[in-house]
Amino acid sequence: MSDSLAGRVDAVTVVGAGTMGHGIAQTFATAGYNVTIVDVDDDVLKTALEKIEGSLEKLGEDHDAVLERLETTTSDEEAYGDADLIVEAVPEDIDLKRTVFESIDDHAPERTILATNTSTLPITEIASATDRPNAVVGMHFSNPVQLMEIVEVIRGKATDDDVFEAIQEISTEIEKTPVLVEKDIPGFLINRINLRFWLEAVRQVENGEQDERSIDAAIRRIGLPMGPFEVLDFSGVDVATMAAKSMRDRGVDLHVPDLLEEKTEVDKHGMKTGVGFYSYPTPGEYSRVDIPRERRYDFDPKHLLAPAVNEAAWLLANDVTTKSEIDKAMRIGMNWPRGLLKMADEYGIDRLVETLETLRERSGWDEYEPHPHLEEMVSNDECGRKSSVGFYEWDYEQTTFDTVRYERREYVAWITLDRPEALNALDEPSWEGLNDALEHAANDDEVRATILRGSGRAFCAGDDIAEIQSWESTEDASEMIENVLGPTVETLRNHPKPVIAAVDGVANGGGCELVLLSDLAVASPDSDFALPEAKIGALPPIGLTYGRMSLGKKSIMELALTGDQLTATEAESMGIVNYVVDGDQVADVARELARATTASGPKSVAEMKDFWTTMEDDLLEDWFDNAMGRLVERTQSEEASEGLAAFLEKRDPDWQR
Ligand code: NAD
């Protein structure tokens, strides 16, 4: 054993043998400490030992050896007289806790470290019941202790550095992960963040804006193991209500939703009473709630993330903890796939600030006021991944290829058609820029997926009509169509990474064809899709050929013969896009799909894409070349000259009936 304060700890006393106490005792004994459990009730102690034995058996531990290290008593003197570390886990009542600490102070040796497992009470207030507040520290385990890895270590106002450090070291010794909370604030770290996230979910339901299942589906979609209502039911609606009220009563600006209090009052505590936000067939027994996956885009997760990030900003600005501790707490404590602040950087700090402002306007509550730390980040252009720095620094590259903007944010290439004044219509520099941007992404091994989108209100309005009209000969048309457009189509088809079209606005003609050539596509409800080339006397070469891989004859012909604009929902049911999601979520869902494709090995992805392209080549490449030849001819036809003129003069062509 080392000579540090933690190294000198061998005898541990756990006060209270209830839900938490027996788990804490088992954890210490399993790690090799000699443990005494003290309770006021002999029967409780007996039950605790039985529970420990059962749990050790389940976990496959050598229970004889562990049980040998465990003793029980109802005598304070026996329990505290020779303890190196005491962990208190009696009910959450400040007077009771203070009485227990007075007794500890009377009996425990000077060297003893005094820890409390309180969830909501101030460490400092508990410590003041003793004559040695410097020896008192928070050690907040999660339930069930045997399984939950996280322990919040909380510094009281008077806690000695070596006591704070010893608890960190001991937490690691018992195979837990400590999260350091440097100030004794209401809710500590995990509850403060969780409650912002959960309460916002409850408010959305309370206001009638959403229902539980769509919120839970959306939160599962971003990788969290359970949605907020599943978690509330699992850990106890009453427990969350109590924690929220306690934070509010201790001065935190936080509204406790009536819905939460009402459920608590009528014993709808969740799994343990058989009903909470959901119903459970056997009270006390966990059963997985049926959350329909197809509802996952009905709710925008950033409405819950924004208040949680705002709370995190407060914690950072007040030196309560660090970024890495916050992210560790959410990853390990709540099993999030990534930390909260990593997610914040993905969404963009500016967008989270906007969300907070919307929430504040809607409610009139100051609790949503964006923290100045976040506002400062926005004004310094530290918005996250898209500006290379946010809470973290990110791998980032930005360049332009003609009219096309290229950004690499970590492993995703964002290619943006950037002629918003022309609805991103594809003129020659745009086709060339797109080609170069795609090649740039293809040649960068760091890029795992490519997102294609348009700036402003459009995805892409198609080929540049004025440019087509300027071609004076078949040679001019062929120069552009066969030497520029054709090769770009090939570059896109042969792109070795998944290509995801993010459509928010018009996707007409060549724009619609780019969507057809993409591997996946997401669109906002305001988007529309059309292949109107024949309206100007031309034809859609990609729609008629490679479009066949997504659409059947009736769909292609409807698009190509009528030139009608289809809604995003119609495009979705036809198979042009995978999902229609609200406009503010289009880029997020594209990013999520990009991440989801990284589940596949990059070489498998390239192989599958090559397989598909080769298959298309066999079936359709000659026909594509044929269609391109016909397009060249068509652009120089009399019909096209009338069609192009009519389009630019905003009138009907002379063939229209
Ligand atoms: P519990 O009611 O299950 O157990 C408390 C035990 O303390 C009981 O066995 C009781 O007999 C005993 N006790 C009461 N007075 C005592 C005294 N003077 N001396 C010795 N023993 C005494 O409570 P719990 O759920 O284990 O919670 C204990 C503490 O842990 C609370 O501070 C709670 O906030 C905190 N906590 C609970 C959870 C949870 O999910 N239950 C999670 C984290 C933290």
From TrEMBL:
- What is its pathway? Lipid metabolism; fatty acid beta-oxidation
Where found in the cell? Peroxisome
GO MF annotation terms? (3S)-3-hydroxyacyl-CoA dehydrogenase (NAD+) activity; enoyl-CoA hydratase activity; isomerase activity; NAD+ binding
Indicate yes or no for the key word Isomerase.
yes
List the Pfam families hit by this protein, alphabetically.
3HCDH (PF00725), 3HCDH_N (PF02737), ECH_1 (PF00378)
- Please tell me where this protein is predominantly located: other
**InterPro entries, per database record:** 3-OHacyl-CoA_DH_NAD-bd, 3HC_DH_C, 6-PGluconate_DH-like_C_sf, 6PGD_dom2, ClpP/crotonase-like_dom_sf, Enoyl-CoA_hyd/isom_CS, Enoyl-CoA_hydra/iso, Enoyl-CoA_hydra_C
Residues in a coiled coil are none
Give the record's keywords alphabetically. Fatty acid metabolism, Isomerase, Lipid metabolism, Lyase, Multifunctional enzyme, NAD, Oxidoreductase, Peroxisome
One biological-process term from Gene Ontology?
fatty acid beta-oxidation
The keyword NAD is annotated on this UniProt entry: yes
Q: Which residues form the 3-hydroxyacyl-CoA dehydrogenase C-terminal domain?
A: 187-280, 303-394
| The 3-hydroxyacyl-CoA dehydrogenase NAD binding domain, residue ranges | 12-184
What does the record note on quaternary structure?
Answer: Monomer.
Q: Which family does it belong to?
A: Belongs to the enoyl-CoA hydratase/isomerase family. In the N-terminal section; belongs to the enoyl-CoA hydratase/isomerase family.
From the Swiss-Prot or TrEMBL record, give the protein name. 3-hydroxyacyl-CoA dehydrogenase
Q: What species does this protein belong to?
A: Natronorubrum sediminis
